[in-house]
Amino acid sequence: MPGQRVDPAAPEVDLGRPWRLHPQVALRDEPFGALAYHYGNRRLIFLRSPDLVRLVRSLERFDSADAALAAVSPPQRAAYRAALARLAASGMLDAG
Amino acid sequence: MPARAPGSALRDELARGLDAPICLTWELTYACNLACIHCLSSSGRRDPAELSTAEAMALVDELASMQVFYVNVGGGEPLLRPDFFELLEYAVSHQVGVKFSTNGTRLDRAKAARLAAMDYVDVQVSLDGATAEVNDAVRGQGSYRAARRAMEHLADAGFEGFKLSVVVTRHNVSQLDQLEALAGQYGAQLRLTRLRPSGRGAASWAELHPSRSQQHDLYRWLRDRPWVLTGDSFFHLSALGEPLEGLNLCGAGRVVCLVDPVGDVYACPFVIHEQFRAGNVRGPGGFTGVWRSSALFRSLREPTSGGACTSCGSYDACRGGCMAAKFFTGLPLDGPDPECVHGHGEAGLSDRDRPAPAADHSVRVPVRLSARA
Ligand code: SF4
Ligand code: SF4
Predict the structure, then answer these.
(1) ipTM of this model?
(2) pTM, whole model, 2 decimals?
């Protein structure tokens, strides 16, 4: 069974620039959040909160990932920031 | 940690089942030109009731609408289906990616080039030994050469990162380094899976499955190589220490299932048996109806008891192991795996009352009167 690991350490990714869901990635909504599958690199990743899924889907409407993060409640922001950085580093997000 | 690998809360959620499978195996045909002694589906002869091209395409439509991202296509030998490429193209053009397993015998230069030109297709060439001697003892004479030739064709065609897929046995476990090097030689990735006593494997398992000390070696080998793919199949070894990569969960009927060549839906590719058949895709509700509302799958999504495993300190890591392995060795489903790393499964193993695999599609070989076995 799949479930590839995204490197737990938040990698260095510039979230000050625009990001969006990679065009080859499909999201399947699930009670826990969503499954994200990248048809290109065949990675399957669990997005483990509906809020994170909303955030990921909202990225394309913002000039930068940081701007999208402004909508996340401050105590949660660091965790979601790290999650976006990991998604970007694993190719799930595309620099827009 | 919202995008990390699954932890135990997510694992509990997955155990309650999802609206669509994550890991669906679809066996296209029971026809096979080899007769591996551990074949999980006892393949050999095509079943006359196999899904037609139109029925197979209708299933792809259903999977696409359920957002099943990809299917693991196997058999039998999928390349023996005359409509194989037609189905492959149909699936990928409907956003259902295909990872297919082949014995390589029919994978010639032209087919390799055709596969290399397609997006969303992954190929797994099966090989069960780094040497012809070890491989052919399990997969049959000449199968080693055929698989090597197929890998050569794939590499020549520029198919990058295809998989060399190995079922780990007592005889090849000492060849893992060689197998990894062999994969590297073709730009392929090594994929190891666990031998289960399913199909013809019911009869060969006792002689082929790795010994207890080999399992320990295997655990360490895998721990040091998180890049080696395993399809999450060795999670019973996670009881030895730090868990291996993956979900560490028996997904049967929860996130895993099998659609067999005649459209029967089973809880997992390794439990082709009446008791684990949930329905058929030809039924009125189609595959979706079976997946979402069959009585069997609903019951598999109920919380389970750990049985004799409950008192084990490793239960959270291993959860009693593989249901199929227990079932076909005659062990209670809520107790330890036959290969329990603490040895708790072995005690219960006996030759009596082991369930027979359901349909046997093996080619009946006429008895040969010969002095040599
Ligand atoms: S029965 Fe075994 S092979 Fe099937 S899903 Fe469960 S653990 Fe995996
Ligand atoms: S006793 Fe059960 S839970 Fe513990 S290691 Fe053995 S199979 Fe796994």
Answers:
(1) 0.82
(2) 0.91
